[in-house]
């Protein structure tokens, strides 16, 4: 007994192939295995996978862009503190440190307040 494996084209007729080869179907055991289902899955996966990857890519790009868009107007915001007259005044006598440096700064402040008197 011989065991052969043959592949048939999708548009050809199996009965015509056996008749052309001179083989009687009554004396031959024929097992037909359909492998088109595997090819169908490969085709579907080949179509859906690139589209899914592109959708994921654009999702992450738009997510990044949305985060940048929220902070786009933050560059002009001032971080300056508002000066209030009610805040307590601190003088040089309240600051601890080197007495010579405090004395020199006191002289500079006095000159800036009253430049003509000194």
Task: Sum this structure up briefly.
The chain is built from 3 helices and no strands. It is mainly alpha-helical.
Write the layout of secondary structure elements.
Elements: H1 14-21, H2 36-70, H3 99-113
- How many strands in all? 0
- Give the helix tally: 3
Q: What would you call the structural class?
A: mainly alpha
Order of helices and strands: HHH
What percent of residues adopt helix (DSSP H or I)?
40-55%
Give a short account of the largest sheet.
Answer: none
Question: What proportion of the residues form beta strands (DSSP E)?
Answer: under 5%
Give the N-terminus to C-terminus distance in angstroms.
126 Å
- Which regions have little confidence, pLDDT < 50, spanning 5+ residues? none
Radius of gyration: 45 Å
Task: Give an overview of the whole structure.
With 118 residues, this protein is an all-alpha fold. It has three helices and no strands. The longest helix has 35 residues. The termini are far apart. The model has no long low-confidence stretch (mean pLDDT 78).
Features:
single chain; 118 residues; mainly alpha
């Amino acid at each position: 007994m011989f065991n052969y494996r043959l592949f048939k084209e999708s548009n050809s007729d199996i009965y015509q192939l056996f008749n052309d080869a001179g083989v009687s179907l009554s004396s031959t055991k024929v097992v037909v295995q359909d492998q088109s289902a595997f090819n169908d899955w490969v085709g579907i996966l080949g179509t859906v996978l690139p589209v899914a990857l592109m959708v994921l890519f654009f999702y992450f790009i738009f997510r990044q862009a949305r985060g940048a868009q929220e902070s786009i107007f933050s560059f002009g915001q001032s971080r300056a503190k508002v000066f209030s007259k009610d805040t307590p005044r601190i003088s040089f006598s309240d600051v601890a440190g080197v007495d010579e440096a405090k004395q020199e700064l006191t002289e500079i402040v006095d000159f800036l307040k009253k430049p003509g008197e000194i």
